[in-house]
Amino acid sequence: MSSPYALLFFLSLLLAFSVESKLQHIKWEIRYSNRSPDCFTKLSITINGLTPGPTITATEGDTLVIFATNGLFTENTSIHWHGILSLASGWDEGTREPFEYDEERSLVLNDWWHRRTYEQEIGLSSLNFNWIGEPDSLLINGRGRYNCSLAGPLDACNVTNPECSPAALAVMPGKTYRLRIANVASLSALNLEIEGHNMTIVEADGHYVKPVVVKNLNTYSGETYSVILKAEQSPSRNYWVVLNVVGRKPRTPTGTAILNYYPNNPLQQPPNDPPSGPLWDDTMYRLNQSKLIVSHPEYIQTPPRVPHRTILLLNSQSRIDGYLKWSLNNVSYFFPTTPYLIAMKKRLLHVFDPGHAPESYDYKSHDIWSAPKNPNATLGNGIYRLEFGSTVDVVLQNTNTLTPNNSETHPWHLHGHDFWVLGYGLGKFDPEVDTREYNLVDPIMKNTVALHPYGWTAIRFQANNPGVWAFHCHIEAHTFMGMGVVFEEGVEKVGKLPSSIMDCGESKLLRKP
Amino acid sequence: MSSPYALLFFLSLLLAFSVESKLQHIKWEIRYSNRSPDCFTKLSITINGLTPGPTITATEGDTLVIFATNGLFTENTSIHWHGILSLASGWDEGTREPFEYDEERSLVLNDWWHRRTYEQEIGLSSLNFNWIGEPDSLLINGRGRYNCSLAGPLDACNVTNPECSPAALAVMPGKTYRLRIANVASLSALNLEIEGHNMTIVEADGHYVKPVVVKNLNTYSGETYSVILKAEQSPSRNYWVVLNVVGRKPRTPTGTAILNYYPNNPLQQPPNDPPSGPLWDDTMYRLNQSKLIVSHPEYIQTPPRVPHRTILLLNSQSRIDGYLKWSLNNVSYFFPTTPYLIAMKKRLLHVFDPGHAPESYDYKSHDIWSAPKNPNATLGNGIYRLEFGSTVDVVLQNTNTLTPNNSETHPWHLHGHDFWVLGYGLGKFDPEVDTREYNLVDPIMKNTVALHPYGWTAIRFQANNPGVWAFHCHIEAHTFMGMGVVFEEGVEKVGKLPSSIMDCGESKLLRKP
Asked: Which residues, if any, are the signal sequence (chains A, B) (predicted)?
């Protein structure tokens, strides 16, 4: 899946700690290749022929020079360093990690469609709304298994293709592993479970977590985690690594990989059926797991006690001229064709809405439990201008969609910052009551956080990174349908922009020969 | 099918003759829509939701103002007025047509794939060459019939979809019809036959033809014809209109439409099986029909008797660094990223090869009947610079491909000019002998002409249209693989170029704010 305006590349950057810093030169060729990650052959966007792309193994402090070539046919591409470009934290360098392990392994979790993004887009943006449907497969480290009997006789689908043999996670009996987990799905909340093994969550979005033991881990699109896994079960067999959709009614088969105890054959199937994971609609289970993720006691970054500004965002499904949309405080966001940063620096202020985006909604009387009686919203791309250095709270409030008795999960992702997760709740956020329950003692910092069905999520961040930053639901279809806002802070501190970036919308006219 | 660098829109411009000229304003919205022309639903490029696009009915001399909006996701688009922008001929205006008819009907003939162009492109440009395969369907006026049992159970394929009910050509018993035929296929030579009815060819590529009666008509990608059809058979039933692939071994079912005699039901199937058309590999049949197409005696434009220059082009399949290519005189053409016209006017002469493209090949000793022993070619984009006003002959010589006992058909199309078709032959062109047999008496003028397997085709044109003009095989895959050359003539007579077209390659840097 890729959005039309920017391709998002997730990186499993393996950060290790070391006193030496290195300079690494890396070449990436981005192009279409036929790949069969779930046995069904499909033209896919790849980096150096791979999807997911190649892993970069780096030590914090290293300098990476990445030379990317766009070999796509007509699409522009940009690289989003998801979660990497946040400001350096004080404890970041030279610190010992608060957990131990022998080796580490990556687990990249994904959902996968055989139809292309543009088909989804046409369906989402049609008056006759047409949902592309749930994923065809779930992939673990780029491998899944499609039921080829559902493909046509002329489709290239072959379950004996080695490209789709299940991913094997090789472990030595008795050793301890750090699993670096990234949910790079475009839609799905994914529950990861490893048969017969508990996992200890130790890190989330680059921040150390007070260790918490779980039987399985809920991950939301855009999140990263580290968990500790001990290979302490009987080494005479392999075990299932399973991936299940949660939060939406699953219509996609369980994704599987093999936890491969040495010296068993990595293709040897475990003797039992794969575990089926938690109930997909057990919101309380997921909400409670979210609440368990707090900062490791030795690595707490205490948030400012009081915000300078609080923005309440009502997340609702809506309609504009009959088109289905998502909106915040009844405004459905659309991207201006000229980039904000260039527009602000070059005084092209007419290219986006001059008014401020709405700060709040009628939180006292709004009924979050019912489909809205008046679902009409408006389009907009006005922004929130934040005072540089100020502390900002955002409370995300979920509601019923246009479908009775339905509320969806939204993983919200903020560019350019990490934020504190101050609290989650079920039901309607009450500023008088709920702010008193905020965790100001050991909140975790993250860049992506779940908003649970019918729930609320409160975050706090410092507006200390000069620029223009998106904050959006990380489900691609939702972003496309307007589920995002934009923050500006300290744009006057951004230096002179290079002429070479003047390429989109009216900025093209500013480009110097 | 569409090429990545320019979308080619064929227009069935219905030119009628009248003393009044009109101004017409037309709006085109180019966008992706789900269409099911052969019962299989596919995201398709459409104009105003239609493929083929809407017909423009105009009278020669009318002024058409066409406002096109590009609603594609990432692709640029350009409109090629195929065969329309040739210089006005002296006889063009106010002349009576040399044939009579009661009404006219359009027949747009096409080949259709369910997989997208990019999949074809990846296959064509891979070291491991992978041909997308023959068309899934043949379409008549945008309608065909796919065998849905070949589609997967999840594919939207439905033979009862009214979108793919066969095209009906309604006729009144006893009346005479002009059928305006356009072959808009990206690959296929298509034989059109109307059960029980002969056709009289009266026009080709906009020029009147000495009437010739045929049982069926061979058409090559990019060609247009008019034929006269008399509805003089028994009106108690309908008749088949059939389309068959010729020149390549057919793997696509016959395309069918209904010749519907009023007042029969247009959906009533004719009682017999559809005619099967001529043998696909009967080259002599097609060559002889090509030779029958000469100018109408009252509309002859006599060519200059002697050319100033003759260019011989050996059409061969070749390899470059292992990649499969097509080449002319051993040069496989590739497009420069900066347009030639801008490059020449702005003296950016380094953006294409400075040397001239090769004028000839070793025509005395070259063996056209065998796969080449040394298939290596080179890439190039040098051009032919023609003296303005000069007369130029081009002789296209076909050869055996890299496959033993195989030679393909290539429909060559020239931009910016009509040319005289001086002769066709089978075997090796011999300048000493064959030029004496040229038809200088009543050659037809065309803009697209077939080069038959193992044959040669000779054309003549006047370099009298200032600009830079492509001459290429109209099979999209062949053009993509290098089968084209470029002519320049009188570029100094082209006026100042508007800044607004400075958009591609280095020309972007010339754009003024």
From this structure: 1-21
CB contact (8 A) between residue A150 and residue B150: no
The rounded percent of chain A whose pLDDT value lies above 70 is 94
Please answer yes or no on whether A513 and B510 come within 8 Å at the CB atom. yes
Which residues, at least 6 apart from B381, have a Cβ–Cβ distance to it below 8 Å?
A: B333, B334, B335, B336, B352, B353, B486
- HEC letters along A180-235: EEEECCCCCEEEEEECCECEEEEEECCEEEEEEEECEEEECCCCEEEEEEECCCCC
For residue B251, give every residue at least 6 positions away whose Cβ sits within 8 Å of its Cβ, in sequence order, or none: B133, B134
- Is A323 in a helix, a strand, or coil? strand
- Section A40-60 average pLDDT: 92
- CB spacing of B121 vs A73 below 8 angstroms: yes
Q: How many CB atoms lie within 10 A of CB B234?
A: 9
**Separation between Cα atoms, residue A239 and residue B506, nearest integer Å:** 57
* Preceding peptide of A263 cis, ω within 30°: yes
For B248, the token pair is 């390549």
Residues B150, A152: C-beta atoms closer than 8 Å: yes
Q: Which of A74, A49, A66 is nearest to A13 (CA)?
A: A66
Using the predicted structure, report yes or no on whether residue B277 has a pLDDT greater than 90: yes
Q: How close, in Å, is residue A153 to chain B by CA atoms? A: 6
Residue B51: name the closest of B126, B101, B130, B108 by CA: B108
Q: List Cβ neighbours of B116 (8 Å cut-off, separation of 6 or more).
A: A43, A116, B43
Instruction: Report the gap between the CA of A149 and the closest CA in chain B (Å).
Output: 8
User: Cα B429 to chain center, whole Å?
Assistant: 24
| Cα first-last separation, chain B | 36
Question: Measured between CA atoms, how close is B28 to chain A, in angstroms?
Answer: 18
> Who's near B179: CB < 8 A, 6+ residues apart?
B104, B105, B106, B107, B169, B199, B226, B227, B228, B229
What's the rounded Cα separation, in Å, for the pair A65 and A49?
A: 20
Average pLDDT, chain B: 92
Cβ(A52)–Cβ(A10) under 8 Å? Answer: yes
CA-to-CA distance for A332 and A314, rounded, in angstroms?
Answer: 11
Q: What is the pLDDT of residues A253-304, one digit of tens each?
A: 999 999 999 999 999 999 999 999 999 999 999 999 999 999 999 999 999 9
DSSP assignment, residue A264?
S
How big is the CA angle at A223 (ends A220 and A225), to the nearest 5 degrees? 115
Q: Do A75 and B76 touch (CB under 8 A)?
A: no
Q: Which domains does chain A have, with CATH numbers?
A: 14-292 (2.60.40.420), 302-510 (2.60.40.420)
DSSP state of A468: E
Higher pLDDT, B500 or B462: B462
- Give pLDDT, residue B313: 98
3-state secondary structure of B252: coil
Q: Kind of pairing, strands B23-35 and B42-47?
A: antiparallel
Cα–Cα distance, A367 to A178 (Å, whole number): 44
Size of interface A-B (CB pairs under 8 A): 59
Residues comprising chain A, all counted: 513
